[in-house]
Structures are given as C-alpha cells and as structure tokens.
Amino acid sequence: MAGAGEAPVITCAEVGSFAWSVLAKRHPALVRQVREATPYPPELARALDVLLRECEAGVITPLPEGAHDGDRWAAWSTGRLGRTWFEVPFLWSESYFYRRLLEALGYFRPGPWQGVDPFAPFKRAELDSPEVAEELAALDTVSQLPPDEQDQALLTGALWGNKADLGFRISSGDPGGKGEHLVADDSAAMWRHLVSSPPGAVYVLADNAGRELIPDLLLVDHLLHTGRAAAVVLHVKPQPYYVSDATTADVLDCVRRIADAPGHAGIVGGRLRDALTGGRLAVHAHPFSCAPLPYAEMPDDLRADLAQATLTISKGDLNYRRLVGDRRWPGTTPFADLTAGFPTPVLALRTLKSDVAVGLAPDTLAELEASGEEWRTSGTYAVMHFRG
C-alpha cells in the first residue's frame, strides 16, 4: 500500500473518540444483548463477564493453549498482548474482541455450543422484518425501469444497504430517516469498465448479512442476468464476526428469503438458487476475511484467487478500512494510490461509519468539515470509489 507509514494508525486511546466509544460503549452493550438473546449456561455467561472486565480495565491476554486458529492469532498478536485494549490499533482490538467472544461462548470447542452463532437471533429477526418485505416488493417496480436506471437502482441499493449494520446500530441507533449523502461517485467509470471488459468473474467481498446482503445478492443476480459477469464469487466470513457479518449460512438464509417472496423477487431468488447449484455463483470463506490486517498483507493464495476477477466489489466500512489502511489519512488522499497493490480493479461501496476517509474532492472535504456534523461516523454519508 502506498505511503503506509505516512499517516498514524487509529487506536482507541483518545477518550471520547469514535474508536474509544466502540470499546467503551458498543462492546459492553453487545455483550449484554448477546446474553439476553440466548439462554447461555452459567459457565459461558461467566466467561463473557471475564472478557468484558478485561476489555474495560485489564490487559490483553492470549487465546487458550490449543485454541482453534491459535497459531494465526499468536502471529497477529505480536506486540499486542499484555497491553490495554485502548492503546493497540483499533482494527486489531475490534477483531480480537470478536474472536475472544466466540472463544468465551465455546463456538470452536467440541460440545453442545460448538458452531452456534451468537448473533443469529439478531440476523433472523432482521430477515423477518417488514422493511425486508418492502424492499423485496420494490423489485417489481425496479424490474420495469430502463436498463441504465435498473443498473443504478440496484447498485445504489447495495450501497445504502450498508446502513443495515446491527453492530453499528447497537451504539449509534438506526439512521433510519436521516438524510443520505453520496460524497464521491465513481460508478460511471465502473460500468464503463464492465462494458469494455469481456464477461468474466466478478468478486464480491461481502459485509453484513440480512438487510445488507439481500441487496448485494440482487446486484449479483443483475450482473449475472445482464451478462456483465460470467460468474460471481462471493467472499464471506468463515465464522460469525462483527455482529452481522455474513457467513455461508447467512447467504443461504437470504437466498431462501428472496426466493420465498412474491412477485419479481421470487424470480430473482430462483435464479440465485440456480446460479449456486450451477456454479455461476460460488461462495468462498477464507480465514483472512477475519484477520485484523489490511488487504495489503493478504496471503498469496487469497491474492491468487482475487487476481482472477475482472472486478472486485468491496462492501462496507470494515472492508474499506482494510483496503486503504485504518489510518488517519488526509481526506483528499487518492483512493487509487492506497489501493494500487490490490490485484484487481476494485469498486468500494461504503457508508462512512468510522474515522477513515479518503478520495474526497478538496471542496467536498471542506464543506463536510464545515458542516459541524459527525459525517465520518454517522452512517449517512457514503462513497462509491473505483480504481480501474
């Protein structure tokens, strides 16, 4: 990544900062919600309490001896253990918190709680919500639009679906009816790239499940159905992560929800099922998807996989932070410079929910800074950045 040493890494050390609030407020609220959503036995509830006390006032301790992926985390934790959670890089502390949460709840250990997603109750409730039904019903109207308007409607749907982030809503509240502002839009260049390229594989780095993953899958179907993509590879998380991040099980739940809907949505759901069974839509779950590292440090096998894409679509705030580096870059730093090492052309669809902001025009940045709003973290501002 270009200039990686030129901007300071974001930590949670500054009291009152957004990163600090995630550790000090969001994580305790999340632990309480997880405990309330599922009747965990006393030993697992106590393990959650131990984790919470450590996060709030203790120092970082390692995973137990012999833990699943313990060797990987030992390498990723060099220089972090024994320090407080607030003084290490924000990206690392967030990721390690979720890994430790799974450890506390016995997700990887043989026994009755192995493989039980602690966030599943939240995800299921969202899929059953009236908002999802309304969004799927809107496909009847979208399907009647001219082709270029369909393109933009489905792309915009995937962009603003990123607001449907359960972890974000725990601490910030659902942005709901607040205004939405697109402050950088390279989508025209992305469409030109797809039109000028022979149909190939489009890769999608998924973010959240539920209300976000559904519009992502609608866009995937659109790319396949219109011939812009010969195949789509959807990269999801190999385990529950960041409350609502999508796993393979979440993909299947969403495809089923779309297919069960009336109207045009049911047709799309049927096409998605056929794409999965026919191999035109594949699901990958690489361990690096849950790594506390930027994509500049991806392993060779993942780089070789992504290099097959004619386009990679990166969804969400976390993937964006990993694309450009979780650092305090000047807001006008070119997105293309920071993603120059990524192995394919890349489109980032991201609503802003953390302090990282790049690729903004100088006048746009000046206007945002003068607004007095918490525009970097409110979830109501968004970018569509493309590097061809």
UniProtKB/TrEMBL annotation:
Reactions this protein catalyses: beta-D-fructose 1-phosphate + H2O = D-fructose + phosphate; beta-D-fructose 6-phosphate = dihydroxyacetone + D-glyceraldehyde 3-phosphate
The protein's required cofactors: Mn(2+)
Signal peptide: none
One Pfam family linked to the record: ARMT1-like_dom
Source domain of life: Bacteria
Annotated InterPro entries: ARMT-1-like_metal-bd_sf, ARMT1, ARMT1-like_metal-bd
Record-annotated Damage-control phosphatase ARMT1-like metal-binding domain positions: 24-361
Higher taxonomy: Bacteria, Bacillati, Actinomycetota, Actinomycetes, Kitasatosporales
Name by which UniProt lists this protein: Protein-glutamate O-methyltransferase family protein
Family of the protein in this entry: Belongs to the damage-control phosphatase family. Sugar phosphate phosphatase III subfamily.
Keywords per UniProt: Hydrolase, Manganese, Metal-binding
